[in-house]
Write a structure and sequence with these properties.
With 287 residues, the chain is mostly helical. The chain has eleven helices and two strands, in the order ααααββααααααα. Strand 1 (132-134) and strand 2 form a beta hairpin. Helix 6 packs across helix 8 (187-209).
C-alpha cells in the first residue's frame, strides 16, 4: 500500500486511540481512589452523546454551548450514581461494589433507552467536515478536535492531581482512606467527586466520538470495553499507561483492519487484552 494509505490508517488509529485513552483514564481515576472497576463508565460515553443531541436539537444550543452542557450533565449524573447507587451499600468490599456498578450500568442503559428511544441518531461534527489534505491522506477537522481536546484533558488531569487541593485529597484517599478520614478529609465527598471526574472524561469521549459514529443508547458499551482493554494494556491504574494503551490499541486496531481484514477490527482489542493478561498482567507501565 502507498504511504498515503498508511498515513490515513494512522490518523484513524490516533482518533480511536484518543477516545479509548479518555475512557481508560475514567476507569483508572475511579480505581485509584476506590479500588474498583466502574463498569458504569461505558454508559457515561453514551450519556454524553445523548445529552449533546438533546442540547443541540431540543434546547437549540450552539455547539460551543452544547458541548460543555453535555460534559457537565454527565458529571452530575456520575456523582448521583455514586451517591445514590454505591454509597448506600452495606458492604464496601470491592467485589460487591463492582457487581453494583454492573447493575447500575444496566439500569442507566435502560433509562437512556426510555428517554431517547432505541433508534440511531446523528450528531454534526464540532466544525465543518471539509477534509484537509496531508501527503495524500484526508484529515477531518473532527480528528483534530479529538486529538486537541484529548491532549488538553490529559494535561488538565495531571495538573489537577498535582496542583489542586482536591486532586491531592483524591490521591490521599487512594493511598489510605482510613488515614485520610482520620486527618479530616471528607472521604465520601472525595469519592463522589472522583466519580464526577470519571463521568466528565467519559462524557468528553462521548461528545467527541458521536459525530464520527452513529449515536445510540448503547453505543458506549463496545467503546467502553475497548477503553477497559486499553487501561489493562497500559497498566490498570496508571494514568500515563492509560494514554499509552489507548493510543497503542487504536493504532493497532486500525492497522489490522487496513492490512489484514476489517472483520478482525473489533476482535483485535480483546486478543491484545488476553495476550497482556497471559504474558504481562501488570500492563506496559503497571507496577
Amino acid at each position: 500500500m502507498a504511504f498515503s494509505d498508511l498515513l490515513q490508517f494512522l490518523f484513524a488509529g490516533l482518533t480511536s486511540g484518543a477516545i479509548y485513552a479518555l475512557i481508560a483514564l475514567g476507569f483508572c481515576v475511579v480505581h485509584n481512589t476506590m479500588g474498583i472497576v466502574n463498569f458504569v463508565q461505558v454508559d457515561f460515553v453514551s450519556l454524553g452523546g445523548m445529552i449533546l443531541y438533546s442540547a443541540l436539537f431540543t434546547l437549540g444550543l450552539a455547539m460551543p454551548l452544547a458541548l460543555p452542557v453535555a460534559i457537565v450533565g454527565v458529571t452530575v449524573a456520575a456523582m448521583l450514581v455514586e451517591r445514590l447507587g454505591l454509597r448506600p451499600a452495606r458492604s464496601d468490599h470491592p467485589l460487591v461494589l463492582i457487581f453494583l456498578t454492573i447493575g447500575l450500568s444496566i439500569m442507566l442503559r435502560g433509562l437512556m433507552a426510555l428517554a431517547w428511544g432505541k433508534n440511531r441518531m446523528a450528531v454534526p461534527p464540532l466544525t465543518s467536515d471539509e477534509p484537509l489534505r496531508l501527503f495524500g491522506a484526508a484529515l477531518l477537522p473532527q480528528t483534530l478536535w479529538v486529538l486537541a481536546l484529548t491532549a488538553l484533558a490529559i494535561v488538565a488531569l495531571l495538573w489537577f492531581y498535582r496542583r489542586t487541593r482536591l486532586g491531592l485529597a483524591m490521591r490521599a484517599v487512594a493511598a489510605n482512606p482510613t488515614a485520610a478520614a482520620v486527618v479530616g478529609l471528607p472521604v465520601g465527598r472525595v469519592k463522589m467527586l472522583t466519580f464526577g471526574l470519571a463521568g466528565a472524561l467519559g462524557g468528553l469521549a462521548g461528545v467527541l466520538v458521536t459525530p464520527i459514529t452513529t449515536l445510540r443508547y448503547d453505543v458506549g458499551v463496545l467503546l467502553g470495553l475497548k477503553g477497559f482493554a486499553a487501561a489493562i494494556l497500559g497498566g490498570f491504574g496508571s494514568l500515563p499507561g492509560a494514554v499509552l494503551g489507548g493510543i497503542g490499541l487504536g493504532v493497532l486496531e486500525t492497522l489490522s483492519a487496513g492490512y489484514v481484514s476489517s472483520a478482525y477490527k473489533d476482535v483485535c482489542a480483546f486478543v491484545v487484552l488476553l495476550l497482556v493478561l497471559f504474558i504481562r498482567p501488570q500492563g506496559l507501565l503497571g507496577k
